[in-house]
Design goal:
six-stranded mixed β-sheet; binds NADP nicotinamide-adenine-dinucleotide phosphate; alpha/beta; 17 helices; eight-stranded parallel β-sheet; single chain
Length: about 525
């Protein structure tokens, strides 16, 4: 049993709001998900709101919960504009209201006589917090100086500028039983999720607004990543690239793991340099990963073996880390496009036009030609179109020919029409002479190109079908099991729908506020 208990109790909900009324709402919401709550008293607008909030807490008497009070001054990275004495005052009030723990920043404790808070009746258990919003400093030195302050636990929240920085923080968590390790920033995101399994006493997650860079919401921490249930036996997978762009992949894979009861987790890795990630693979125990732009070609240099087709395409999107640590690469974009298109078209013997000649076009061209289609390439750069056509034994079709020529399928592999340029189509209605149009784009699901095609009575395939099929193929490579396709599909479609609704809402809000502004002026 750790300092804060076990299981979900080790996920601490951060409650931060400007009014007592909002704080009380958030506390109730937090307690439906976990029993450990940090009250950010420094976020409250005024002393009157702080007093109101603590008086409410005292009356509410949440007996089974653990409350941690924080009134961090600006000097320590918090919002509290008051003096050190006022900070201590509010922590004393927090104890009276029932808080068992307080978080005291190192900037405050250093200024107290004897560098100790023990003579004040603040909450009985003290967490000394050290923040560095710029980098991950010399950690051993911090721990050594904290040892003299007689506190119950030490929190180190440090900006991870690389994955290696976050690894250093996790190593420290492994070797200590009263440390809270908080890697901040996007590069630290996977370590933030794995911190509990590495021995961190707590992991923080906001109920509403994020209070530190790179925080993951309480719901995602609990349901998507199950941070509290991960152990050293849990198999770790992930996606390397841009975690914001690839936010759907964790949802897809983790839904599969939860549905099948596979003890595994899939994490988003922000990878700026492949070497930074690859050296962390053994440390995190990564067993496999998805590779996205811009690493699909560069990873080829690091795999010791590769599926022949992936090396022919010149791109790897799936890596298996074998038990000896060596990497095996393959390409499931290839499978993805076939599975998606064959629902609407018999591929063998069909004539397919690929619009664009970039990375995805290469996988699509190889897939279609291997499956027996006659491949035609149309791209704005003639040289790229010729090279790709030559590689797959296809033909080059000039743009003007699209007005007259017929194809069984037209596939858009350019990013034209991708959010936020939803209203644009890469091809005009007069260029769509075919039975099926497939767009590789999946944000939005129904692109302008697909809408134009549907208007002409042409069958359409959204890029989300390819995204699902390539991801499901990866899942099956890693687990060697049949993937639970239906729930995985449902989760991704629901998330995309929610994103689209949100965008529509924001768009409508912007229109309303523009209108109001115009009406006022
Ligand atoms: P890429 O390597 O950058 O290739 C993009 C291609 O589009 C290049 O041929 C580029 O031509 C062309 N292009 C860009 N802007 C254009 C324009 N305005 N007019 C005409 N051609 C244009 O990118 P990628 O990796 O192939 O990805 C392309 C799209 O496919 C992205 O939207 C991506 O999200 C999507 N995708 C989807 C899936 C899925 O699972 N659904 C999988 C992979 C990719 P130049 O070379 O002349 O710039």
């Amino acid at each position: 049993m750790g300092l804060f208990g076990s299981g979900l109790r080790r996920i601490c909900a951060v409650v931060a709001a400007s009014t007592a009324a909002e704080m009380s709402k958030l506390v109730r919401s937090a307690l439906r998900r976990t029993r450990t709550v940090e009250l950010r008293l420094d976020w409250l607008d005024t002393d009157a709101e702080r007093a109101k909030c603590l008086s409410w807490l005292e009356k509410a008497q949440f007996r089974k919960a653990t409350f941690l009070a924080t009134c961090r001054r600006r000097e320590g990275g918090g919002e509290f504009a008051g003096s050190l004495e006022r900070e201590i005052y509010w922590l004393i009030q927090a104890r009276a209201a029932g808080c068992q723990w307080c978080d005291l920043e190192v900037e405050t404790i250093r200024k107290l006589s004897g560098q100790s808070v023990r003579k004040y009746s603040v909450p009985p258990r003290v967490l000394l917090s050290v923040h560095n919003f710029k980098r991950t400093p010399d950690l051993a030195r911090i721990l050594k100086s904290a040892a003299h302050s007689g506190v119950d636990a030490v929190k180190i929240a440090a900006q991870s500028r690389s994955i290696h920085d976050s690894v250093r923080l996790l190593r420290l968590a492994r070797s200590s039983n009263n440390l809270v390790a908080v890697p901040m920033g996007e590069a630290g995101l996977p370590a933030r999720i794995l911190a509990l399994r590495e021995g961190s006493a707590l992991a923080y997650a906001p109920v509403a607004e994020a209070t530190a860079p790179g925080q993951i919401s309480l719901d995602a921490m609990k349901h998507l990543y199950r941070a509290h249930a991960l152990t050293r036996r849990t198999r770790v997978y992930g996606v390397i690239g841009d975690p914001v762009v690839h936010s759907l992949s964790p949802l897809l894979h983790n839904t599969g793991f939860v549905t099948r009861g596979v003890d595994a987790v899939y994490l988003p890795f922000l990878v700026r340099q492949l070497g930074d990630f690859l050296s962390a693979v053994p440390e995190f125990g990564v067993r496999g990963f998805s590779v996205t732009i811009p690493h699909k070609q560069a990873i080829l240099k690091h795999v010791s073996e590769c599926e022949p087709l992936a090396s022919e395409i010149g791109a790897v999107n799936t890596v298996v880390v074998r038990s000896d640590g060596s990497l095996y690469g393959s390409n499931t974009d290839y499978v993805g496009v076939l599975r998606a298109l064959e629902k609407k078209l018999r591929i063998r013997g069909s004539r397919a036009l690929i619009f664009g000649a970039g990375g995805a076009a290469r996988a699509v061209a190889f897939a279609l030609s291997r499956a027996g289609a006659i491949v035609a390439i149309c791209a704005r750069r003639d040289k790229a179109a010729k090279e790709l056509a030559r590689a797959v034994g296809g033909e080059v079709v000039p743009r003007r020919a699209l007005r007259t020529e017929f194809f069984d399928a037209i596939l858009n592999t350019t990013p034209v029409g991708m959010h936020p340029h939803d209203g644009i189509s890469p091809l005009a209605p007069g260029e769509l002479h075919c039975r099926v149009v497939m767009d590789l784009i999946y944000r939005p699901q129904r692109t302008q190109l697909l809408k134009l095609a549907a208007k002409k009575g042409i069958a359409t395939v959204s890029g989300v079908e390819m995204f699902l099929a390539q991801g499901i193929a990866q899942w099956e490579i890693w687990t060697q099991e049949r993937a639970p396709e239906a729930p995985m599909r449902r989760a991704v479609l629901a998330a995309l729908r929610a994103e689209e609704l949100l965008r529509k809402g924001t768009h409508n809000d912007a229109r309303i506020s523009n209108r109001t502004a115009t009406e006022r002026s």
